[in-house]
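Limitations
The structure tokens in this dataset are predictions for the assembled complex, not deposited experimental models. Users should treat interface geometry with appropriate caution, especially where small molecules or nucleic acid strands are included. An illustrative entry is reproduced here so readers can see what is and is not provided.
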Amino acid sequence: MSRDKVIKENFTKLQQKSRAAWESLRERPLILVGTATCGRAAGALEILKVIKEELAKSGLEASVLEVGCMGHCYAEPLVTVYKPGFPPICYGYVTEGIAARLVQDFLGGDDPCLEFALAALEANDMVPAFTDFPRGMIEKNIILDKCGLIDPENIEHYIALGGYAALAGALGRDPGQVLEEIKASGLRGRGGAGFPTGRKWETCRLAPGEEKYVICNADEGDPGAFMDRAILESNPHQVLEGLAIAAYTVGARQGYFYIRAEYPLAVARVKKAIEQARQAGLLGTNILGSGFDFDVDVFQGSGAFVCGEETALIASMEGEPGLPRHRPPFPATAGLRGKPTVINNVKTLSYVPHIVERGARWLRETGTDGSPGTAVFALAGKVINTGLAEVPMGTTLREVVYDVGSGIPGGKAFKAVQIGGPSGGCLPESALDMPIDFDSLSQAGAMMGSGGMVILDEDDCMVEIARFFLDFTQKESCGKCTMCRLGTRQMLDILEAITRGQGKPGDIELLLELAEDVKAGSLCGLGKTAPNPVLSTIRYFRDEYEAHIKERRCPALMCQSLIAYYILPEKCERSCDACVGSCPVEAIYTNEDRIKVIDQQKCVKCASCLEACPPQYKAVIKLSPPELVNEMGA
Amino acid sequence: MKTVTLTIDGRTIKAREGEKLLWVALENGIYIPNLCAIPGVKHPAAACRLCFVEIEGYPRPVTACTEPVVEGMVVSTRSPRVDRLVQTAFELLLSNHQQDCANCPRNRSCELQRIARERRIPLRVKRLRKLERELPVDDSSPALRYDPRKCVLCGKCVWVCREKGTGVLGFAGRGFGRRITTFGDVPLGQSGCNGCGECARICPVGALVEKKADI
Amino acid sequence: MVLTEEEKRVALEQTGSILENYPPDRGNLIPILQQVQEKLGYVPLVAMEEVARHLGVPAVDVYSVATFYNQFRLIPPGKHQVKVCMGTACHMKGGHIILDCWKRRLGIDVNQVTPDREFSLERVACVGCCTMAPVTVIDDEVHGKVTPTRVDGLLFSFGVKIPKGQQKEGETVEQG
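Predicted assembly:
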């Protein structure tokens, strides 16, 4: 029997077994509970417990599965119910009471409790589906498509829904053909800079040497991004399959997952996925009878943002501090232990099985010419629907913020969107209609980066956000090269002075000079991109910098040193004590008119009183510059 | 070994192919500022960011310590872009350097003074804030005096301590807190250092000095 | 921080048994240190020396790695570990104010331990619960939407009484 027939036969057996298991699961009602980290933080494990208890109590027959993240983090905990005769319905903001009712009334009776439903997963006549909402029309799930719908700890679910078919298909072809497919697809690395994946693979494939490695970079360190974690927690097999295909293509027999130790659940799920793949014969020696050997280990990163940089990642795997090295040589020719090494991000590898399965042309149907496919964003900050969203490249920022994210909460005004985390930049309202892809973002002074997207509103100070990101990169700088170690430190000192109201004329110009030189002169990508948040905020919000420096005023009323809290006497209700009780430092006293007054000397500006003051009074306000307090009293 | 011909600042120079540009220039009497480069080390640290040069056909300045020479290479050690980068890197180092030249044992033999002289960059930095490091001077060794506030983190002492000394020196911490120190940050006198003095001889500044040189 | 003889003995014993599982390959350094911290809660100097001997590298190289990565703690943590999320979303929703509160209430700075070793305070990058910002993680339990009063409430739940208005900066909280 020919080699590709053997592979096909072996895989078909595996697929049939998995499909049978998946279908038997669907014979009775099925309840999915999202228990990724975001769900757990919202209490998903308690919900799971309630559902199991209720089922036991009522004696109803149903299967319960723990699944990953669907991306609707704002509505966690999420529960999805499949019941024959009904469309699959997803419920959000599930409480223990709602969970109990879903079992009693929906499974026990025939009331689908639509008042708690978020949407149906498929179009139907009964409940609006996700695709009926503007968000659903814009979203296009490629790499998130199975997230939240399968048990990430069960390889059979992944296989039953088409998983590992791409690996089986690839193994039946020549590695060169697989490489051509990836090259033709125009896939670009989702880790940050958007380097063409096919070119990286080709370099490694052509590099001399028997021993080669493939590494999945899951050292997600952007402080506002969590999509890699969500994918690993929700569908680890997809990434593992991508890694195996990469290994086959470049000729590697050993692969690694480099995962942040701060992601314990992701580590556990990937380890389990590896174990299951080994047992199914999809890892190890002679995979599916193809003669190809490949195995994978997990390496836990120790908490250093700079290790997202390929050469630093390699250094840490070799037992060194995570110091980047000069490139060239690039890891694709001399990487781990000096051997040719391909390092790809979680998201990049997630596309690989889809491309191999459906072809390069299929990927190019989505996205822009320069950036085919989709982009996955982690929406956070001042946006209603926080969570994950996968949209075609070329979608505008406005669609992402307003249609997918449902806009800004509390009726506040949009100010900026920070894209790409510490390497990215802040884009203003005028950039909202820009189609997003790798190239348009870098032209606008931001960067796709990791895909973190933080929405900022009128209450957010742009100098402060620049300071925040620079503080982050400065702390995460490895300290090896002068430009980054001292350049970012100098810039941070200036920004701190500005946010404290101690900025000097010429500080903006000095910031710009240093930013240019740190960009041009740093050794690695961290330093080369660290100034982006500063450059982009100066470019679009220079007036805010000037207000801080010239008027000692924070227009967004955010910088603590430049504001004061003040209780408006005419609005203070007098008999209410909410603010007094809320103050952690006893800075609020009652004057002879029973009006509450803040002792500015004692105030630590924690905002407790502002939040405690009942909304019908709104007596506590912020003032900038703080000296305005004296004028108010007069 | 194959020989190649290249041009540096208009001078035609023959060199071994693959040799790093920095060494070729220095061997031929063309000065390029540098602090962290160590001859013969396979992977240059490329940490000090001072040896920038322009190479024809390259879009931006590159570090000479990492660039292997090739046939026909055309190099200039000065250009407005190079000068600007070198000045910034140099000023950044000075802003973080405890400056007391008059009382420093390395006065007149200090590499920082040399760079200032060669590139006509004042040793007093006006535009940057002083970045103080709160690290104590280590006077515990009978042979050596270590002032970490003067250290430019070139790493030469760490290298030579391994090659010729006892291997007690190393880097610790990261970012602005990166420092050259011993295991557990113990004073040199208790670290197992034998006082051979190789580190003081290779130190380009006055961070590590031999005590007899003090007098 | 000076370790007791007992602490040293435990550290050496545990480190020894961890090292049995690893061949002396420098690539194992970080996994070994992670194991040591997992077992002991921190990586003491005596353990680092032991690891260096096993791997045949200078002790200062192990120190170099242990002081480079955020994950490694060189002193024993408090009984309760308070981790304040400093991710972007938490920062924009006042995470720094919450961190200040913890500092004030515990009377310690970040990466310090209260003298009674009850609490230690750390800042962490995004824990991925941005929708619940600002977030504090205490002993692996995530607390969302934390306010200054909630900080006091959480401390109270650990049996710490805060005599109102009597707390000064730099003073350690008394155990109730």
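Some entries come with short summary sentences. For this one: Chain C touches chain A through 50 residues (CB under 8 Å).
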